[in-house]
Amino acid sequence: MDYAFDAPPVDRELLEFAVGLVGRAGQMSAQGFISGHWRSHLKEDGTEVTEIDVAVEEQIRDELSRHVPDDGIFGEEGGTASGLSGRRWIIDPINGTKYFTHRVPLFSNDLAYEDEYGPAVGVINMPMSQLMIVAGRGLGCWVLTGRDPDLRSGRRAWVTERTGLGGARTMMHNPAGWPEELLSALHRRVFLVPSTGVIVALVTGRADAGVIAGPPLGYEDVAPMPVIVTEAGGLVTDLGGASVLEGDMSVLATNGRLHEEFLQLVKGLPRNRDVQALTHGDY
Predict the structure, then answer these.
(1) What pLDDT shows up at residue 278?
(2) Does the annotation list 62 as a binding residue?
(3) Which spans in 68-207 are helix H?
(4) I need a surface site. Which of 23, 39, 81, 135 has the fewest CB within 10 A?
């Protein structure tokens, strides 16, 4: 499912609703982070989930059920609730739970909305930084700040205009899971920097590109990306050039001008390494 350039703009009131919804979720997760009063456990896939993840998703689901009762919902923790409208919301209540549990304030609250035309709304909220990136199809991409983000006071988000691949500032997410071939190929051509949020850095001009490889992401991780990156003037695919929503769940996000060169640079390279075998399961 690709971004539909010829689709009508999403309703602005719906975008404003999404801002408020994620803003409230961010306040809950920030309070939980600061208090430290929560329990966690490992899910069947080996990833960690906390009581705050579950509570934040439940809050979002409750508000969606009241405001748009006919829409479907997919959440990382609660799974799928089918709807009647053909539209759906995708929730990642705390993207970066490992950051959250390790007391690193780089987690985010992510939300996406898909209608009959495809990706329509994307929100990435970093509550500890009081920074929200929100985009609506045909309405642009916006940077909102403060404890109570407001779309009316936001500023437009834009990617950089860099045209040369050499030395391009490139966020790398989860390099521990990258194979040597991918890391070496990029290291030789671009300026690799640790990720503090690939998509946020790209659309605010702090990076020219971002690469996510290693263990595949979940759909909830990538769902907000197409509308956010596109409305900021960039381009996002998987590392093979396929739709980021239908590819192998790797990510290449660029300012658009550099995208083809990046794809050629990583063409045919492996995208994952066996981290579990390397660390005997201690990763």
Answers:
(1) 56
(2) no
(3) 97-101, 180-189, 198-203
(4) 39
CATH topology of domain 169-274: D-Maltodextrin-Binding Protein; domain 2 (3.40.190)
* pLDDT value for 22: 98
In the block, residue with structure tokens 């990076």: 207
Q: Is 92 annotated for ligand binding? A: yes
For tokens 């508000």, name the residue: 63
The answer to whether 94 is annotated as binding is yes
For residue 194, pLDDT over 90 is answered with yes
pLDDT band at 37; cut points 50, 70, 90: confident
What is the pTM for the complete model shown?
A: 0.94
Question: Is CATH 3.40.1030.10 the right assignment for the domain spanning 12-156?
Answer: no
Residues 152, 89: Cα–Cα separation, whole Å: 23
Question: How much is the pLDDT for 277?
Answer: 55
The Cα 78–Cα 83 span in angstroms is 15
- The answer to whether 2 is a known ligand-binding residue is no
Question: What pairing do the DSSP bridges indicate for beta strands 155-156 and 140-145?
Answer: antiparallel
